[in-house]
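Escalated from tier 1: LPXRUNBV holo job.
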Amino acid sequence: MATGLLSQPSSPPIAPAAAGPIYRSTKTYGHSEGLSCCFRQWRATHSHCNLLHGYALSFAFVFGTRELDECNWCFDFGDLKEVKAWLHHMFDHTTLVAADDPHLPVFESLQRTGLAELRVLPAVGCEAVARHAFDHVSDYVAKKTAARVWLESVEVREHSGNSAIYCNPAEP
Ligand SMILES: Nc1nc2c(c(=O)[nH]1)N=C([C@H](O)[C@H](O)COP(=O)(O)OP(=O)(O)OP(=O)(O)O)CN2
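Tier 2 regenerated the structure:
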């Protein structure tokens, strides 16, 4: 097995098998949100992407349900404040480093010196960040709605040209 691959996903909440329409709602935290994040992609040795560089990341979440709530909503746009706080904790003036980065000790030293706010992830890159956000927000939404709502996808965007999307692996 290739060592760079992320592990298989655990089972996220999925759309019930019942027939019927699916309602979707979306929430986007755009580039102006200030999620100013530094990447270190140590595996990209063929390109300059293994060098420290950064973007004001944007995140777009798509939620699905077959059953609207008492307000006729899929997921309340205003009920994601904890998600917004988590996004800031993870990606606002932080440096993302992979757990298997051979230079991890250097970054940990920068953190100790107060020169970097480190976030160690299983892997780094738009796809990996989308997967990481999916896992967190998927659990959050399922708990908030007693599994009435599921998370369909997360799109992470570096800028208007580059993005990656992670989709619910259990989608019908
Ligand atoms: N599928 C992915 N491809 C790349 C990622 C990624 O996260 N997922 N990341 C990078 C680099 O880190 C960087 O973000 C992009 O830099 P670059 O290769 O220079 O890409 P540009 O869009 O600036 O290239 P242009 O040729 O100017 O369009 C690379 N790939």
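The two ends are 27 Å apart (CA to CA).
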